[in-house]
Amino acid sequence: VEDIHRRRQPLPSMEAIYFIQPTKENVIMFLSDMSGRSPLYKKAFVFFSSPISRELVTHIKKDSTVLPRIGALREMNLEYFAIDSQGFVTDDERALEELFGDEENSRRGDACLNVMASRIATVFASLREFPLVRYRAAKSLDTMTMTTFSDLIPTKLAAGVWNCLMKYKQSIENFPQTETCDLLILDRSVDQVAPIIHEWTYDAICRDLLNMEGNKYVHEVPSKTGGPPEKKEVLLEEHDPLWLELRHAHIADASERLHEKMTSFISKNKAAQIQHSARDGGELSTKDLQKMVQALPQYSDQIDKLSLHVEIAGKINKIIRELRLRELGQLEQDLVFGDAGLKDVVKFFTTNEDVSRENKLRLLMILAAIYPEKFQGEKGQNIMKLARLQSDDITAVNNMRLLGGASDIKKSSTGAFSLKFDINKKKRAVRKDRTGEEQTWQLSRFYPMIEVHPKLVFSL
């Protein structure tokens, strides 16, 4: 796989597949590759990631030396990355800055939304689904309040997606002509807290504490030659049945289930019992599990998966203890549910001076999302001094206001969804406890607002 914008070795006897975005720059590079007397490749099969404009198609047709060398020219509608069977991203790393940045630039913001709309629409083109597009509409507080660009983001994005879908209805064979599903468009202002707070499900905490790269986890296994341990990469994804079962479970629940699975496996296998009895009934280490694999080759895949997740859960629980994350997590959730306030954060900082820079930052960002007014003027400076944060961190905390807070006077009653709950509480809350649900595990109280919004919308 090679980048079209880099110099490549000519292979005039071979055919090439181009998978490119339908931009002017990419088309120019493609024509440069394939035109003239000495093309880079014998033939080109070109697949565009989204619909190409008529102007660019005309530009390609004008080069008479290129046309005979094109084996295929098609639109694939694949401008997204599937992260699992139920999720995808459009992979725009600068979207947050371009849409909610301090310097409002509507031209740059509109360009970002157009790209995003096109990419989202390709998902429905691939699935052959025609969604009813729902979105969080902007509502002005009064006639004197001006609607900003950020207020209109969901509306503009919804319009962009709809325009793409209208074109698909006419251009894609067998594309539905009536709505077959729902698309709900929200922006980050409906829930500033979720990406920052420590989330205690197995999947979330793995990504938070284990420095994973995507789905890749690296761990050590014994060397087959008897040398030092070797590093092995594994993918935590849906092909792993244990990951599939545990990923949305609370870490305490996941740890308990893993213990039960190991106990059950040992009780049903004599060779495993022998290995376990050698430990005098103690807890099995990762090395013990790996020895068990050697003793029970017919169960190697099962034990490999089990030992991997036992190791991961053990490592996570060790980090939680070492960083004293349970106390921090409790304070985070108390803030969100209105059971704690600024005084509790100040007390936490003064009694826990060894809290990491990252965790201080996350705690203050949660506080800023709930109490933006606390970070104005001298009061805000005093909070920052107490936390001993660096200048970049202080900027990150102050930038929370750009997303529109739960208690921002202007935003609190704008938009179709409000994040403000329990207004009679002395302390402010951006979540309320869900009725009819008992907490089985400590720190399982928090939930992202995305769990609630679809239920509210689709029940109307």
Automatic annotation (TrEMBL):
<comment type="similarity">
    <text>Belongs to the STXBP/unc-18/SEC1 family.</text>
</comment>
<dbReference type="InterPro" id="IPR027482">
    <property type="entry name" value="Sec1-like_dom2"/>
</dbReference>
<dbReference type="InterPro" id="IPR036045">
    <property type="entry name" value="Sec1-like_sf"/>
</dbReference>
<dbReference type="InterPro" id="IPR001619">
    <property type="entry name" value="Sec1-like"/>
</dbReference>
<dbReference type="InterPro" id="IPR043154">
    <property type="entry name" value="Sec-1-like_dom1"/>
</dbReference>
<protein>
    <recommendedName>
        <fullName>SNARE-interacting protein KEULE</fullName>
    </recommendedName>
</protein>
<dbReference type="InterPro" id="IPR043127">
    <property type="entry name" value="Sec-1-like_dom3a"/>
</dbReference>
<dbReference type="Pfam" id="PF00995">
    <property type="entry name" value="Sec1"/>
</dbReference>
<dbReference type="GO" id="GO:0016192">
    <property type="term" value="P:vesicle-mediated transport"/>
</dbReference>
